[in-house]
Amino acid sequence: MRKEDYININKLGWNRLIESKAKYSNISLPDYGPFLKRGEEQLQLLGNIKNKKILELGCGSGKSLQYLNKKGATDLWGLDISDLEIENVKKIIPSIKEQLITSPMEEEVNIPNNYFDIAISIYSIGYTSDIDSTFKNVYKYLKQDGVFIISWTHPFFNCLTSENEKVIMKKSYYNEKETIITKGNGAVELVQTNLMISSIISFALKNGFTVEDIIEEECESIEDKNSYQSNFFTKDKIKLCPTTIIYKFKKKGK
User: Fold this and answer.
1) Whole domain around residue 121: which residue ranges?
2) Do residues 39 and 27 lie in contact, with contact meaning Cβ atoms separated by under 8 Å?
3) For residue 49, what is the domain's CATH number?
4) What is the pTM of this model?
5) How would you label 46-73 residue by residue, b for 16+ Cβ within 10 Å and e otherwise?
6) pLDDT at residue 229, rounded to an integer
7) Which H or E run includes 145?
8) How many domains in the chain?
9) Does 161 map to a domain?
């Protein structure tokens, strides 16, 4: 798929989803993923964020930015492909409206370089059409020793499906081709890419990051945790595999 088509499908898709007012599940801090036993309050991946400068890629509804604001971060920026989401966040947190930008994360935008202590991507990295450019951009935005935290669907979990009361591996782990998914009870189509763990790490290392931590957090085997409901993250699958993988990278010299 051409990069332009990938971006356009996701931009139109997210806007249509917002306009439709269809219900859909979303992840935001302090949670790093659906049904995880521990979130930021327990894992403390961000550390003390008081007076920190933080950028969120794929800020969506702004709930993670709200959480960071309450925790004392004083300079918050958000980036999202949906102009409707950005307008909603401006209403929720008007104090940072000048620091909210509508753009795909893989494109260069007017964001300060060598400025941020932390960048985060909470269940949004899979929607980039160009992971290499995304890492390049984040490297420029971060200060030396700045931290980049990513959470996304565990690539092995993405290979599993439930059939006849059994969990089977239906998709090849090696398949990194973009996939069309639906959200909002089929209301819209979006494109995402699920990369192998080694691929994410390779792109990070290539662009000047070191690996600080990788977490495959155990899940709660319950039907509904924190009001999160999904037909994809099913109870039988989460007993066997983490729903989420969390990466913590640090910016070092190339």
Assistant:
1) 26-154+194-232+244-251
2) no
3) 3.40.50.150
4) 0.94
5) beebeebbbbbbbbbbbbbbbbbbebeb
6) 60
7) strand 142-153
8) 1
9) no
Contacts of residue 131, Cβ cutoff 8 Å, sequence gap at least 6: 106, 125, 193, 195, 199, 200, 203
Q: Report which residue type is found at 200.
A: I
- Output b/e per residue, 1-36; b: 16+ Cβ within 10 A: eeeeebbebbbebbbbbbeeeeeeeebbbbbbbbbb
**C-alpha distances in angstroms, 156 versus 31, 44, 136, 170?**
20, 25, 26, 10
Find out whether 146 and 119 touch, Cβ atoms under 8 Å: yes
Using the predicted structure, report yes or no on whether residue 186 has a pLDDT greater than 90: no
pLDDT in tens, 201-253: 999 999 999 999 999 999 986 655 555 566 788 888 998 999 999 999 999 97
179-183 and 100-102 beta bridge pairing: unpaired
What tokens appear for 14 in the block?
């997210």
C-alpha 67/C-alpha 160 separation (Å) is: 32
How crowded is residue 221: how many other Cβ atoms within 10 Å of its Cβ? 12
Taking the C-alpha atoms of residue 125 and residue 120, their distance in angstroms, rounded to an integer, is: 10
Residue 164 lies in a domain: no
Q: Is residue 112 included in any domain, yes or no?
A: yes
In eight-state DSSP terms, residue 231 is: S
Q: How far apart are CA 41 and CA 38, in angstroms?
A: 7
One-letter amino acid at 169 equals: M
Q: Is 87 inside a domain boundary?
A: yes
pLDDT value, residue 222: 60
Transcribe 105-141 into DSSP letters.
TTS--S--SS-EEEEEEES-GGG-S-HHHHHHHHHHH
